[in-house]
């Protein structure tokens, strides 16, 4: 990807991080970069699921329109919620990134996918596909509430979310 967005999470935190009421929240720094772009941002869409990626697949196969898919996987590391096929679909459909509070797989394909990916860990076991989970509900990622329509900014320093566009 050539046109990386020109924000910086440190600058966002310096500009907005001390506001009352808060203008942004920082996701705890436990999500690792497994994707192919170091920096991505966009309005949020959400999925909540447990070891079943039916709703993740539905989301990335629909138009992304520059959004970031935030997946509350309840931090389960037992099964991957996204792999190379879904990452490629996300890139093809215009998603800016996928942030998974859970596991992903197919590292080499994720690295080549053209989409930003953050997750807790790699796990080679595939997800269940039993039509479970919800889309576009408020989720809580590592203690931070993230709602559909919030903005998410991810770069080499971290991930911040805000109810409004900051940059
Ligand atoms: O089985 C799945 O849906 C996850 C996966 O490996 C892929 O996206 O390639």
Give a summary of the structure in a few sentences.
This protein has 167 residues and is α/β, with parallel strands linked by helices. It is 17% helix and 31% strand.
Report on this model:
This protein has 167 residues and is of the alpha/beta class. It has one domain (9-162): Glucose Oxidase, domain 1. The protein is built from 4 helices and 11 strands, in the order αβββαβαβαββββββ. Strands 1, 2, 3, 4, 5, 6, 7, 10 and 11 form a 9-stranded mixed β-sheet that branches. Strands 8-9 form a two-stranded antiparallel sheet. Strand 10 (151-155) and strand 11 form a beta hairpin. The longest helix is centred in the middle third of the chain and has 9 residues, at 84-92. 45% of the residues are buried. The model has no long low-confidence stretch (mean pLDDT 96). The structure holds oxaloacetate ion.
In whole angstroms, how far apart are the ends? 19 Å
The CATH C-level class name: Alpha Beta
Instruction: Please describe the biggest sheet, giving its number of strands, its sense, and whether it closes into a barrel.
Output: 9 strands, mixed
- Going by helix content, strand content and strand pairing, the class is alpha/beta
Q: Tell me the overall shape.
A: globular
| Number of separate strands | 11
Treating each run of at least 4 consecutive H or I residues as one helix, how many helices? 4
Secondary-structure element order, N to C = HEEEHEHEHEEEEEE
Mean pLDDT across all amino acids: 96
Give the strand content. 25-35%
Overall CATH architecture = 3-Layer(bba) Sandwich
Helix content: 10-25%
Q: Which ligands are bound? A: oxaloacetate ion
- Taking pLDDT < 50 over at least 5 consecutive residues as the criterion, the unreliable ranges are none
Radius of gyration: 14 Å
CATH level 3 topology: Glucose Oxidase, domain 1
Whole-number total of structural domains: 1
């Amino acid at each position: 990807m050539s046109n990386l967005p020109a924000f910086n999470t440190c600058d966002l935190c310096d500009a907005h991080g001390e506001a009352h009421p808060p203008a942004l929240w920082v996701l705890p720094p436990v999500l690792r970069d497994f994707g192919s772009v170091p920096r991505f941002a966009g309005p949020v869409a959400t999925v909540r699921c447990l070891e079943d990626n039916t709703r993740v697949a539905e989301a990335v196969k629909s138009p992304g329109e520059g959004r970031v898919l935030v997946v509350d996987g309840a931090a389960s590391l037992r099964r991957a919620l996204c792999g190379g096929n879904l990452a490629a679909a996300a890139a093809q459909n215009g998603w800016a990134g996928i942030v998974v509070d859970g596991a992903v797989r197919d590292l080499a394909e994720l690295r080549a996918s053209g989409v930003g990916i953050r997750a807790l860990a790699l796990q080679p076991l595939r997800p269940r596909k039993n039509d479970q989970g919800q889309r576009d509900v408020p989720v809580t990622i590592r203690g931070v509430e993230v709602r559909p329509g919030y903005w998410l900014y991810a770069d080499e320093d971290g991930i911040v979310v805000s109810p409004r566009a900051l940059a």
